[in-house]
Amino acid sequence: MLFKNAMIYRLTKTFHLSSDDFREMLEARRFVPCAGYKPSSFGWVSPLGNSREEELPLLHEVSACYLLCARREEKVIPTSALNEAMLEKVAKIEAVEDRTLRAKEKRNIKENTLAELLPGALAKSKQVLGYISPADNLLVIGTASAAEAELFINCIRDSIGTFTVVPPQVKQKPQDIFTNWLLRRKLPENFQLGNQCDLLDIEETSTVSCRRQDLDTQEIRSHLEAGKICTRLGILWHGDLSMSVDKDIVLRQIKIESMTDEDEFQDHDPIAKLDAEFVTMTLEFGRFLPELMSALGGETLPGA
Fold first, then answer.
1. How many CA atoms lie less than 13 Å away from 72 in the CB half-sphere?
2. Taking Cα atoms as reference points, which of 176, 139, 183 lies closest to residue 296?
């Protein structure tokens, strides 16, 4: 799958932009690397990225879905290096002035030291993919990080002016559904238990994480009968699409079980390979997500 993790959002309004207009608007937030004292940068790069990235479009459309790619770059200053430089300055000032600096003064020195180190700091970068399906009023972002997803959404807003999305609003609490599935071993049609789960004791706040484990065991049942709830559950859909889903409907470790890394999309043309992966994923999500929402009690769509 093109996305290993995914956060799902519903558009609250119909997306009317044409691909040409959308592509042009994205240029306003094309990625610019960190420079000077700038600690981080976030902007659009081409989903088709290669060595001629600046010449490639920032939007890739396949089957009426828009694929976007954002790059996040942050300058890295090790905490130990920052503290060492700050403490050296503090020691010199205290020796010259023969006094102990106050906490506020030390904070100011630390901030100034950080600013001095930023221009020479190394930068690390990460790319985040996402796609919009206007027909489904759907935004899917290929991350499990709420912070990264929020940066991605804000970058779209900055590019096109307004863009309102909400997480899926399901009619039952996912953790209650997951707990019931584990207890009763009765899942909706096309769904099976996977091999992982997270259990939470609400009163004690203790947790149990099970990985690569048969969930149809007395051990799991005993935890649930003792009052724990399931906050994350591994599932199989149609016996082939596997993932874990948490109480916030964040999808992790998405995989098509029948495919291996070796035989997945063996096209040597990178764009054709991307298109094949993208079409496969959007088709799978287009069928899977409605069934998942139905299994969680049904979805209340924005404006309904």
1. 15
2. 176
Given a cut of 70, is residue 266 above it in pLDDT? no
Residue 185 backbone class (left: φ over 0; alpha: ψ -120 to 50; beta: rest): left
Q: What are residue 74's DSSP bridge partners?
A: 40, 124
- Residue found under tokens 């996402």: 130
pLDDT digits (tens, 9 = 90+) for 94-140: 899 999 999 999 999 998 988 888 877 788 889 999 999 999 999 99
Tell me the pTM.
0.86
Q: How far is CA 297 from CA 122, 166, 175, 186, 228, in A?
A: 48, 18, 12, 15, 21
- Burial annotation 170-205 (CB, 10 A radius, 16+ → b, else e): beeebbebbbbbbeeeebeeebebbebbbbbeeeee
Residue 12 identity: T
> How many helices and strands in the chain, by DSSP H and E?
7, 12
User: Phi first, then psi: what are they for 87, rounded to 5°?
Assistant: -65, -35
